[in-house]
User: Fold these one by one.
Assistant:
Number 1:
Amino acid sequence: MERRILETKVVHPEQGEITLFEVVDIVGGVEVYPDERPLFTTRDMAQAWIDQRVEKGR
């Protein structure tokens, strides 16, 4: 299974535009969005989350 990091920009009423990163699974070429997956404020944090799962075999 492949995992991909998607970048999303949202507008926060007080902080302006914020960039968030989300990890999605790619299954059969289709993006799958698991329900209980956190959003990250940096691409590095999202990549570290992926690396932890790979080390644990998940």
Number 2:
Amino acid sequence: MTTPTIDPAAVLRGGGQVGDRVDPGATEAEDQGDRSPAPLLLLLHGYGSSERDLPGLVDHLPPGLAWASLRAPLALPQGGHAWVPITVPGRPDARATAEAADAVLGWLEAHVPVTTPVVPVGFSQGGLMATQLLRHAPERFTAAVVLSGFVLDTSLPGDAALARRRPPVYFGHGDADRVITAEATARTSAWLPEHTRVTDRLHHGLGHGIDADELAEVATFLRDALGTT
């Protein structure tokens, strides 16, 4: 099986309301001079979607943040992309999940300086990836946002370091979600407080999606986590 990688030509990247495809040779520091780099939101779409799905959220978040929207490496026969195949809902293959996280970390290493604060923002299966990235490289991420996502149901070597670091995490989910299993959501609500400083918000009547109230909470969370205005 081919090891998954992130296609640099399929990454949308921008700041504020502007996005474009990233130059594979570019880095976040190139136009920064001696200034501190802006925090980077790492947008991770859900199963069957693409890198074009989440950039619209940026308009509702604090201004001045850079962002990069990655396309998941697994092309689906019906169109769209995925981070991992769906086998048992809410319980993806651990090896496939690890390989997908390593692909994202490889892209970060090649394109984003280690001095840049990075916040994974993942929806659905992208939320799985956000939690997985924290577990693979706890020191690399300043915070995380998990929207209708979940955590892999196995222990990982990075879990102890993550529990010591305890980065802030926003976990938003709806009680009308019929895509992510109730067991996977409950598992995540139990796991996150043991490893992070979690803001866990249940939205009544919200299905498998993101609404305005949730986005407002995410904006407040990011201001607090990143010290932005």
Number 3:
Amino acid sequence: MGYASVRGQHKFPFLDLGDAPANPVNERPFTTTHSINDRSHETKHLSKAEIAIVKARILRGDRYVDIASDYRLNQGRLADLKFGRIHADVEPANLDDRRS
């Protein structure tokens, strides 16, 4: 039997699904490919140097919307960077040496 619910018999017997129909679009609604608390995968397209620049721009006071659009991040990931929930090991870059 697959993951679909069959009146009273389903893959997750500890859940009371009642007479809920099977979900034909997503037959595996309770699985995930990563830990919910591990968000570092969401910034994998950035190098450590780019993350350092993003952190420096946050500290400098740049608007989240500007940084997010420049680096294809959502503002939630910027908050995660700011508060050290992800990439806490990366120090902010020194933007004084960079040409604007």
